[in-house]
Amino acid sequence: MRRVERYAAGLVRLSVGHRGLVCLLWLAVLLAGGAAAAANLGRLDQSFTASGQDGSRANAAITERYGSGAGVAPLVAVVTWPNGTGGRSAAAAARLESGLAAATEPGTRVLSYAGTGDGAFLSPDGRTTYALVYPRSGKPDLAGLSAVRAATERLRTGLRAALPEARVNVTGVLPLQEDSATERPGLLLQLANAACALGALLLLLRTFRPLLSLLPLLLAAVSSVAALVVVLALAGGMELSFVVVYLIPAAALALSVRRAATLVTAWRAELARGSD
């Protein structure tokens, strides 16, 4: 314990004696480290899988057997025929099947009334039918999500071209998520976000002082960048998920508030002892 205290005291004397150098080092970590981290985030594992878990093994088995249908939710193509046309007719089923084949990549797994004859794919009046389309997205990762986006647009455009008289919609988990992300947040949510930000600011101002309240934010910024640089260095020899990019700043902010409180308390104690 005494050895640690001597090391800490020596580090303090070194830092106080070279304050300009310490500030330059922090600035270099913040700027150069931030640029390096931003340019190399692609080295992190972009997959959403939990390797070795039951779900991951099941997805691998499904992909091996069927070629698709694991890792990402299926797209749902909904077709409503005009009045007088029923989805149960052989002609409508054949047109739907050929339209789906033209609007999807070869080898895409498609389940519909046209291919199965299952009445569960039809509405009670027979006018509306839907198909489950499992895009060949490969590994469930960010590249896989891009493949699903492309498959969604191709399916929507191709079906509308093949069935011009029908009303065609394409939905699914990813299209719904993207629609929600592009919508402007409601007034209540905006007010809640503003209240949270104002509350955090008031807490910092109450704990520190107007100028000192910047200290935890500065510590969080430098700590986050330094931690990301270390993570990227480790990613060269092991698989690390990109999720850490979101976890590190939150952890750094929580630790930096406590660290800043310790620094400010020690600083005020030194002022009370008569230090300049």
| Integer average pLDDT | 80
Query: Termini, distance in Å?
Result: 30 Å
Estimated structural class: alpha+beta
Number of strands: 4
How do the helices and strands follow one another from N- to C-terminus?
HHHEHEHEHEHHHH
Q: What is the helical fraction, as a range of percent?
A: 55-70%
Number of helices: 10
Shape: elongated
Instruction: Please summarize the sheet with the most strands.
Output: 4 strands, antiparallel
Named at the architecture level, the CATH assignment of the largest domain is 2-Layer Sandwich
Question: Which topology of the largest domain does CATH recognise?
Answer: Alpha-Beta Plaits
**Which strand order spans the largest sheet, edge to edge or round the barrel?**
2-3-1-4
Tell me the number of structural domains.
2
Oligomer: single chain
Strand content: 5-15%
- What is the class of the largest domain in the CATH system? Alpha Beta
From the alpha-carbon coordinates, what is the Rg to the nearest angstrom? 29 Å
Unreliable stretches = none
Q: What features would you describe in this structure?
A:
A four-stranded antiparallel beta sheet has the order 2-3-1-4. It contains ten helices and four strands; from the N terminus they run H-H-H-E-H-E-H-E-H-E-H-H-H-H. The protein folds into two domains: 21-48 and 184-272, no CATH class; 62-182, Alpha-Beta Plaits. By secondary structure, the chain is α+β, with helices and mostly antiparallel strands. Helix 2 (19-40) packs across helix 9 and helix 4 packs across helix 6.
